[in-house]
Design goal:
Elements (H helix, E strand, L loop, with lengths): L1 E2 L5 H8 L3 H7 L1 E5 L1 H9 L6 E4 L10 E5 L1 H7 L8 E6 L12 E5 L4 H13 L4 E5 L7 H7 L8 E4 L2 H9 L4 E5 L6 E2 L8 E5 L8 H6 L2 E4 L10 H16 L2
Parallel strand pairs: 1-4, 3-4, 6-7, 6-11, 7-8, 9-11, 9-12, 10-12
Antiparallel strand pairs: 2-5, 3-5
């Protein structure tokens, strides 16, 4: 049976998932398109619900609802939707994880940066992302930007930098602040292999409190500019960490 009413209660529920509070209450998030659906399936997960156009009625999900194009337009967050709106339980990463570096993000506010950092973290073997008062990594834009990394990288959330650093110290060898200070070391001279790498807010950088909690401070030597985009800086540090783990 095809759903043709935009006022259908199940459609209203799907539409409500654009709101973070609704996602948090339900413990779910959504993806759109076949690529992200396939990423979820390849990670061993199955969506609890999927709303699809006719050509995707045979996909795997707990419940599959065929909807009309008009109804799909109601729930989609995409400008050019493909026709798969899949709702997933937020990942529960259970069991011992390998020792590696950790990326700690403080007050990151741009969902595109969040998704890009998670995608890069997955590519460079980072253990997890520790988030302090950050944008929701399960927001639609962050999920799109992550290109499926939300299925692969655990995120642990804190409302205090002190608690986040205390947690990170238990699973890494040191805590490094990426900050320009008189005693900051060149990244090439810093042991990032199994470290917690702290990246700050796009506009303000790391808080003074975060910097004070670090074991050391590191910078990326640059010419003709004073700073990099948060996701670019995070990428350079995570790549550096991976290469040093392989030495």
């Amino acid at each position: 049976m095809i759903i043709t009413s935009r006022k259908n209660p199940t459609i209203q529920w799907a539409y409500s998932l654009r709101d973070k509070k609704a996602r948090d209450t339900e413990g779910v998030f959504f993806t759109e398109g076949k690529k992200l659906y396939d990423e979820g399936i390849m990670s061993g997960r199955v969506p609890v619900t999927a709303f699809v156009l006719k050509e995707y009625c045979n996909i795997k999900a707990g419940e599959v609802y065929e909807v009309s194009p008009e109804v799909y337009d109601k729930i989609t967050d995409e400008k050019s939707p493909e026709g798969i709106f899949a709702v997933w339980k937020k990942p529960d990463f259970i069991g011992e994880r390998k020792k590696s570096s950790v990326i700690l993000l403080e007050e990151l506010q741009d969902p595109g940066n969040m998704g890009t950092i998670l995608r890069t973290a997955a590519a460079f073997g980072v253990r997890e992302a520790v988030l302090v008062n950050c944008v929701d990594p399960y927001s639609p834009k962050a999920v799109r930007s992550s290109m499926g990394a939300v299925f692969k990288i655990p995120t642990t959330h804190f409302d205090s930098i002190d608690k986040a650093v205390e947690y990170s110290r238990k699973i890494t060898d040191s805590v490094i602040a990426t900050a320009l200070h008189t005693d900051s070391n060149d990244i090439s001279l810093t042991d990032t292999a199994y470290a917690t790498i702290m990246i700050g807010n796009e506009g303000k950088g790391l808080s003074d409190r975060a910097v004070s909690l670090a074991d050391s401070k590191a910078i990326i030597p640059m010419e003709n500019t004073e700073s990099l985009n948060a996701s670019v800086a995070a990428t350079i540090f995570m790549y550096d960490s991976m290469t040093k783990r392989k030495i």
